[in-house]
Amino acid sequence: MSEKKKGKQKVVKEESDEEDDEEYRWWEAENAKGDGTVKWNTLEHNGVYFPPEYVPHNVKMKYDGKEVHLEPEAEEVATFYAAALNTEHVENPTFNENFFRDFKATLDNSDKNPPIEDFKKCDFTPILDHLEREKEKRKAMSKEEKQKLKEEKLQLEEKYGYCYLDGRKQKVGNFRIEPPSLFRGRGKHPKTGSLKLRVQPEQVTINIGKAAKVPEPPAGHSWNKVIHDNTVTWLATWKENVNENIKYVFLAANSTLKGQSDFKKFEKARELKDIVAKIRHDYNKDMTNKVTAIRQRATAMYFIDRLALRAGNEKKEGEEADTVGCCSLRFEHIRLEAGNTVHFDFLGKDSIRYQNTVTVDGQVFKNLKLFQRHKESDKDQLFDRVNTQELNKHLSSYMDGLTAKVFRTYNASHTFQEQLKNTPVSGSVNEKILAYNRANREVAILCNHQRTVSKTFDNQMNRIEDKIRALKYQKMRLKKTMLTLDPKLKKKRPELDEPESDLGEEWCEEYEKHLEEKEKDRLRKKFEKDNEKRKSEGKGPLSESELNEQLEEAEEKTKQLSKERKTGKMEVKKSQTVEKVEAQIEKVNERIKVVNLTKVEKEENKTTALGTSKINYIDPRISAAWCYKHDVPIDKIFNKSLRDKFKWAMEVDKNWKF
User: Acidic residues bias located where (predicted)?
Assistant: First the structure.
């Protein structure tokens, strides 16, 4: 059996029950990349799902200490803010200012609303209390109520979640219109807290096949437009009000069209590797060109290539966050120091701050100093004679469809493949996965895929530490058991008598008490369950004294654990032997090693978002080939949804190269 087939088996075996017998393997068909124009011939779907209308709860907020009645529209907006009270957003002055501006505008829509002018006098906690009560009600729902909700959700998904594209059933991505809410944004977005209005059918354009039945809009409404454009892949579109972004409903990640799009993207990046040397040669040559525009373009291309910067697009002043890319950098975003050192500091896409200090080639540094001579202000453009459109037009002269964005995909995939060479060939699966995630992290750092440290990070790390201590506690008891079985080992193997690190007397006592409480909780639940069963069988309940007796045994067990720990004399079972106990110690050591790797990985990745680069910038075939080469189960790297999304990439063999 070939390695390719072996790799394929690892994926298909698990999911064969869920797949259609007639699965369309588009990547094996002719013209797999698509022709770049017509995307489909027939398209049928049921449109989009609108969120239900707001139902007032009539819980009054307070203003200046007094309860005030709000009309439904204003009450809904107040409820949005109340839901955010226990988050960091309400600590952001910009969030509060934008919310209050839009809240007051909503209040002005009805004369029945009270006059509210001072944000500091507003108290939304009564509404928050109501939301918390509703949350508890949902938690306390019966099994039947939860099942009913599940069935309603499945009915929605069956109606809106699938379409027929060229006669084949395909999954739709997010078919739900976003409900109204307060806009959050990422980073220091200037519009955070603004009200996202309810989208109406009159704003939505439907794209569907000419012969297909047009889905009905909600009662009393009509669609903005109905079109039949088979050169695009979206099913519906509308414009949201906060940033005036165009929103689309596309097919799901595992659909034919999305798969073809991903395939084309990564193949284009692979093609770049054949000409990247020439491009680099040319832009290095153009660094000294007498025409300033060409010299600027060459310098910008250097940054896009070497630092994986986004090209950047022009922004409407005051309309969006002050985010920039390479072509829109201003002099205030860089600082030059001796030794060809450049400090970058600016807000990139999604208002994520980019801070980096790099040593650049000498000519690049000279060019930056040259450009600075002509500036009038730090607000001036660094590359005032270059824009993204012109840069991409120049790149397309090397290869059809080549843009600055392709460089990010190329450099991400190339860097990842090179970093994977550090995988320990003879390491355990967990050690190999750590090497994989380290390679992934290098790419995430290159692409500036950051995340803030989770508020629960310290608690998570403490739980991992406790897990390690618990394993060491087991190991300590096993070592004492070995010495009890064979006291002569104390001289032959003195390490068995050495104390385990991090296991202080106080921690051990707390852990033993924790084990006791855990056992008591188990016994109580079992007692209740047994009595429920006896009741259903028409039998009388078990005696409380029986439970109390078991609980006392749990307490005695704790005393026994403490005594054994202090004396070193263990209660040995007849079946235990030195050999068996030693084998148990080896298993515990392996588990400690695995948990330690988890700890290292979590610490290393606490400020880095690995998912974005893995899903969007790294060719998934690199990961698949790596798994087959190093005998790492593919599901350790890609979850089921990603294996579905990248099904076309799972076909490679272990020797595939980007």
Answer: 546-555
Q: In sequence order, what DSSP letters do the residues of 410-475 get, joined into one string?
A: HHHHHHHHHHGGGS-TTS-HHHHHHHHHHHHHHHHHHTT-B-PPPTTHHHHHHHHHHHHHHHHHHH
What contacts 515, CB < 8 A, 6 or more positions away? 558, 561
- Please write down the long-range contacts of 462-466, taking CB distance under 8 Å and 24 or more positions apart: 464/595, 464/598, 464/599, 464/602, 465/502, 465/599
For residue 239, the 8-state DSSP code is E
Of 139, 122, 133, nearest in space to 81 by CA: 122
Residues assigned a catalytic role: 617
- Rounded CA separation 312/328 (Å): 6
Bridge partners for 162 per DSSP: 171
Any idea where the domains of the chain sit in the sequence?
43-50+145-252, 61-140, 276-398, 459-596
Q: State pTM to two decimals.
A: 0.72
| Domain topology for 276-398 | Topoisomerase I; Chain A, domain 3 (3.90.15)
Return the closest-CA partner of residue 344 out of 353, 352, 330, 333: 333
| 61-140: CATH class | mainly alpha
Per-block mean pLDDT, blocks of 10 residues, the chain (658 long): 40 36 51 61 96 95 94 96 94 95 95 94 96 93 91 93 93 93 86 95 96 95 95 93 91 87 93 95 96 95 94 62 88 94 90 90 95 89 93 94 94 96 94 94 89 83 92 93 92 90 89 93 93 89 92 93 90 91 94 90 84 92 96 94 91 93
> Which tokens in the block code for residue 439?
């390679």
CA distance 523 to 550: 7
Residue type, 112: K
- Return the closest-CA partner of residue 519 out of 474, 485, 552, 486: 552
